Amino acid sequence: MNYGAEPADQVVRYSLEGMEYSLKITGNVAKHVAIFIAAALKDQKKTRGKTRLTRMLKEQRPMKFFTVPGDRLKEFAKEAKARGILYVVIKDKVNPDQTEVMVFADDAAKMNRVLDRMNLDFVKAESGSMVTEAVEKENAPEKAENQMEKETGENVRTETVVLPEGKIEFELDDAEDMFQIGDEAFPEGNFTQAQEGQQEREEVWAEVDSQAQGVFQDGEKLKGFLDFMAECNTQRTPNLLLIYGQHPDFKVVRSYERWREEHRSVKAGEHGITYMISTEYEKDGEMRRGYTIGKGFDISQMSGKPLEERPQRSLTELIGTVLKDQSVRVQIEDDLPDKVQAQYNPRYRTIYIRNGMSEVTTFHALNRELACAALDQHTGTYSRQKVSAQAYCAAYVIAKRYGVDVTGFNLEYIAQRNECGKKDPQELREFLNDVRQASYSIRNHIERNFGAKEQEYITDEFAIGDPVKIPETKDEKPSEKASGKEKKAKSQPER
User: Fold this and answer.
1) CA–CA dist 267, 257 (Å, integer)
2) 35-51: pLDDT as tens digits
3) How far apart are the C-alpha atoms of 237 and 215, rounded to whole Å?
4) Would residue 479 count as lying in a domain?
5) Which of 145-154, 163-172, 362-371, 418-427 holds the top average pLDDT?
């Protein structure tokens, strides 16, 4: 579904050395950057910024854009120079506090290191991308227009269904049925200190990137990692990849300091694994979060009582727990389009789910759409196409964790969509981070509901009393008064 307005893609056409080029810019920064590039290329002045921009455009390589605070550009320039990153600074005169930096997409991993050194969030900083293609002059406008239509999803086929909220369009693109979950089986395919050195950090991140690419080699490898994610305790995505690459059988990994707080010690002969440890530190008078490279230890390597095993839950219990106290509405429908098992509608914050499906399929489809809802940032930019694959994987993780049949999932298709690990490692890590975020959200909801105790009744300390009833006085009849006097007289002793 495409209910929120996506940032409009921008197409810039320009000429360099007699060749015509079409420049496609996407993301929140698209309009601003398009104006800048168009103006810079038309300007006859040979400035340093224009020279560098032209040099980068000539290479016809994909670009990425990152937002850097204007007052930290000098710090950025120093870090970028140390790593040999070629960049162009795009300043906004209207909003000088925020500056866009254009780099080659190939340097995204290096940019991650730079922003990490600056304690800036890489994901939040990324603001757009750009691709360049040489085209024939006479075909350029048509080609750019067709490309834009394809990438913006304006030609996605929809089917309208009338529901109580009104007419709602369900997206029915070619991939929609690939993210349905059925009961039938699919064949399975075969630091301790921060100052220990920048080189160590680079090596660790290189290993993280390598693992991210390896996860998507094929459906079986992706299945293995998602199985691990289902059983492992909550971790940041880089740590999940690091742990999986070293000991995929580890389930509860923490730093030595965390285990010590729980009064546990390392067993004799056990060795820790490379692990990112979150830290807090003060800089420029404010507290910031970062990490150090240290050692992590699994529960199996520590002394003390083993953790309690998760109790087995029935499918009926699981569905009821998932539905309890949800932040989105869940509405059962009889008239959904044929290829729609369930679908989240961001406009109404409602999940519409088909009536009459099996419990297994209902559980999977419900969790898939809850994952979509968890990935909705509520900024008006939600796109089902961008999150459906991640939500599908998140539904698999939840099912695997709670022992629900997962034979209806086809993870090979997900691996193929991600080009079998050939995509940029950062993009693959972002995909896995979405899976992690969505599955953890559902998982925490389930655990919270299972852990909630039944209502216990205790005596109210401040009980509120009933209103005081004042007896009504009625006028007595004369005969009754007289009779009363007579009785009273008779009871008195005689004198």
Assistant:
1) 15
2) 777 766 665 555 556 66
3) 13
4) no
5) 362-371
